[in-house]
Design a protein that fits this description.
It is a single chain. This protein is α/β, with parallel strands linked by helices and about 375 residues long. The chain folds into 2 domains: about 10-155 and about 295-305, Response regulator (Rossmann fold); about 155-290 and about 320-365, Rossmann fold (3-Layer(aba) Sandwich). The protein is about 45% helix and about 20% strand. It has helices spanning about 1-30, 45-60, 75-85, 100-110, 140-145, 155-170, 185-200, 220, 225-235, 250-260, 275, 290-305, 335-350, and strands at about 30-40, 65-70, 90-95, 115-120, 150-155, 175-180, 205-210, 245, 265-270, 285-290, 310-315, 320-325, 360, 365. A 6-stranded parallel β-sheet has the order 2-1-3-4-5-11, sandwiched between helices. A 6-stranded mixed β-sheet has the order 7-6-8-9-10-12, sandwiched between helices. The longest helix has 27 residues, at about 1-30. The protein is globular, with a radius of gyration of 22 Å. Residues about 1-25 have low confidence and may be disordered.
Length: about 375
């Protein structure tokens, strides 16, 4: 029996080896492209870290270096996607809520191309059309576009933790948040969580908040000067504000600069801004963070492994895909009591006993 088992074992090993080797060339041949949200590739925020995740994913599967296309205005998004389609790219990553409609349309027209939509979750009606009013969301994205992964997060969770920090380090009990635009659900989620977290840590805390633009345009997310001007106006009207939370991408970097110039505290968003934005590291206590690089890289790896599934992937604190960045130079500000509040909130959110905001029927937040 032993002489029979050895050849069979060798055949099994050979078959496994052949399977592993045969999948590698397929993955290596994949052409990958990224289309930015409005703004630059090196915005030190959403575009940049999604791009780094695209590069990391390509490296991990052995594919060629990915290509990028920058969108200067919203109309560029559709053109950039079509350019990659015309060039027969296999995987197209698009960044931002504003790219949702164009990405979904391209995914339906090109079922053999894989799409990864960062911060995208279209409301689809029974006919498969996008309902911009979010009235009829009965359509199943996983069936309508099985080639389209929509990556989203529960931004209210890191926002809540940031609110605990802000209220705990504030001496005036008056803090603020500046968002890019309220039409982007992620922005509202962050701010709603921030307000709830602050109130949980200190019910006496007053939270000012406002938005840079009515639309997801350059002013909202790619204009630091706009963020600077807005934060200065808010501070002039409320001179006792001593913590600013920015939720406005590159525009929000101007908010952090105002915090530094005013010798008060800042809180970053999406990525660890103490590292990504060194010009304002002297006042950036912490950041409400998404693991963007990991999330995009993982999505590409799933495609290469043929384990990807269409639909919306809602990432949250239970898998450590959102949370707070390290405190870096500001660790001494975080007292044992503050850390206890943070730890308790994290544990409760992971256990499902704490919701970081009042949720609407789509799982997004309603501002208190």
């Amino acid at each position: 029996m032993r002489t029979l088992r050895a050849p069979l074992a060798m055949l099994a090993i050979a078959a496994l080896a052949f399977g592993a080797c045969s999948s590698t060339p397929a993955a290596a041949a994949l052409k990958i492209g990224l289309v930015t949200d409005v703004g630059t590739l090196n915005d030190k925020n959403f575009n940049q870290y999604s791009w780094e995740g695209t590069q990391d994913g390509a490296t991990k599967i052995g594919a060629a270096a990915p290509k990028s296309a920058q969108s200067q205005v919203s109309a560029d998004i559709q053109k950039n996607i079509q350019s990659f389609v015309d060039q027969k790219f296999d995987i197209i990553v698009t960044v931002g809520f504003a790219a949702t409609a164009d990405t979904y349309a391209a995914a339906r027209k090109n079922p053999t191309i894989k799409f990864i939509g960062v911060d995208q979750s279209p409301c689809l009606n029974a006919k498969g059309d996008i309902d911009p009013t979010f009235t009829d969301c009965s359509g199943d994205m996983s069936k309508l576009t099985p080639n389209y992964q929509g990556i989203q997060w529960k931004e209210q969770q890191p926002g809540y933790l940031a609110g605990i920090v802000a209220a705990s380090i504030s001496k005036s009990h008056h803090i603020a948040a500046v968002g890019g635009t309220k039409v982007i659900p992620a922005v509202v989620n962050y701010i709603a969580g921030y307000i709830e977290g602050a109130k949980s840590a200190d019910p006496m805390t007053k939270v000012e908040f406002g938005y840079l633009s009515a639309a997801p345009d350059k002013t909202a997310f790619a204009d630091p000067a706009a963020g600077t001007a807005f934060a200065k106006q808010m501070l002039a009207a409320n001179p006792d504000i001593d913590v600013f939370f920015q939720v406005a991408g590159l525009s929000g970097n101007g908010v952090l600069q105002v915090a530094c110039d005013s010798k008060i505290y800042g809180i970053g968003v999406d990525v660890d801004q103490f590292i990504s934005t060194p010009d304002t590291s002297k006042c950036t206590v912490v950041s409400a963070e998404k693991k963007l690089k990991k999330n995009v890289s993982d999505a590409i790896s799933r495609i290469a492994a043929k384990t990807d599934k269409g639909g919306v992937l809602k990432l949250d604190i239970t898998t450590d895909d959102v949370g707070l960045s390290p405190f870096h130079d500001f660790q001494s500000l975080i007292t044992a009591d503050t850390q206890k509040k943070i730890d308790a909130a994290v544990a409760a959110m992971k256990a499902g006993t704490l919701k970081a905001c009042t949720e609407n029927k789509f799982g997004g937040c309603v501002l208190p």
